[in-house]
Design a protein that fits this description.
By secondary structure, the chain is mostly beta strands. It has one domain (about 5-125). The protein contains one helix and ten strands; from the N terminus they run E-H-E-E-E-E-E-E-E-E-E. The strands form two sheets. Strands 1-10-5-4-3 form a five-stranded antiparallel sheet, with helices on one face. The protein has a five-stranded antiparallel sheet with strand order 2-7-8-9-6. A hairpin with a 4-residue loop joins strand 3 and strand 4.
């Protein structure tokens, strides 16, 4: 069975990032569902979230961050792919010419993405 995804939110500014953060807050994400495609400069994470903007039912989603130059993680055991973390919030900092997007996760885990611009899309599986 083919999974279909429909675009929900496209963010390219601080307001859009806040909306994406609010939508994915509390999402459950397995470490195996976090990917950095270095050659394509794309960071992907997928998981299950409550669709708070409409029905509040659980849906599978993919969140794509584009133009990512560097990724750093803290307190994430990448060898244990079955661990599930909760996404608490997405925040950003402006550093000179770059942005640092911070993914705050449960268990004091953290992922920092470095990018020149904010290009984020959140898509739900239908």
């Amino acid at each position: 069975m083919e999974k279909n995804y429909s675009p929900q939110i496209i963010a390219n500014d601080l307001e859009g990032l806040r909306m994406v953060s609010a939508c994915v807050a509390g999402a459950k994400i397995k470490i195996s569902d976090i990917k950095f495609l270095k050659l394509n400069k794309i960071f992907l994470l997928s998981g299950e979230r409550n669709k708070v903007e409409t029905t509040n039912k659980k849906v599978n989603f993919v969140c794509k961050f584009e133009f990512i130059q560097k990724v750093k993680s803290k307190n994430i055991d990448q060898k244990n792919q079955e661990v599930t973390l909760e996404l608490i919030a997405i925040e950003y900092l402006k550093n000179k010419d770059d942005y640092e997007i911070n993914l705050n996760l449960s268990n004091n885990a953290h992922i920092a993405l470095t990018t020149e611009s904010l290009e984020i899309s959140l898509e739900d599986q239908i």
